[in-house]
Amino acid sequence: DTLYFFGDNNLTEWGPLFQRYVPPAFRIPGTSPAYSFGIAGSGSGVPFHWHGPGFSEVIFGRKRWFLYPPDKTPHFHPNETTLAWLHHTYPTLPPAERPLECTLRPGEVLYFPDRWWHATLNLDTSVFISTFLG
Q1: pLDDT higher for 34 or 9?
Q2: CA–CA distance, 41 with 21 (Å, rounded to integer)
Q3: 76-92 b/e (C-beta count within 10 Å ≥ 16 → b)
Q4: Where is the JmjC domain (predicted)?
Q5: How many degrees, rounded to 5, is the angle at CA 124 between CA 119 and CA 120?
Q6: Which of 56, 65, 92, 134 fits a 20 to 30 Å CA distance from 114?
Q7: pLDDT at 9 over 90
Q8: In terms of Cα–Cα distance, which of 10, 1, 52, 14 is closest to 129?
């Protein structure tokens, strides 16, 4: 299971966390960042999708990322979990069709560019914050 907080929320309970959180220093002029806070179990994740640019930071646990540039749509089924994709589709991909990959650990930050396809897989129970820049 994964629990996400997006957009405007009653931050009474979470206020102390967000008061201590220092987001990445980069901004897009004329915009305000939006934050997403998540707590997720091992094996959970988000299937391939894209949106505007941003950062993702792991506070606790490990999160594996799979990324494709905007002009290279990944082969996936929208109702398939990332874990199922990793077990069934990923091994059949020729090396040239595999995504860029990395695993974020606590304190590490990943920048994801505008409209890049990405999927995530939480390798452990994970706590993370994403900063959307657009």
Answers
A1: 34
A2: 22
A3: beeebbbeebbeeebee
A4: 1-134
A5: 5
A6: 92
A7: no
A8: 14
The lowest-confidence range among 2-16, 25-39, 57-71 is 2-16
What torsion do the CA atoms of 56, 57, 63, 64 make, to the nearest 10 degrees? 50
Whole-angstrom distance, CA of residue 56 vs CA of residue 126: 12
Residue 59 neighbours by CB under 8 Å, 6+ apart: 106, 107, 127, 128, 129
Distance, CA of 132 to CA of 134 (rounded, Å): 6
Distance, in Å, from the CA atom of 82 to the CA atom of 66, rounded to the nearest integer, reads 9
Express each pLDDT in 75-86 by its tens digit: 898 889 999 999
**Helix, strand or coil, per DSSP, at residue 21:** coil
pTM over 0.90: no
Q: How many CB atoms lie within 10 A of CB 121?
A: 23
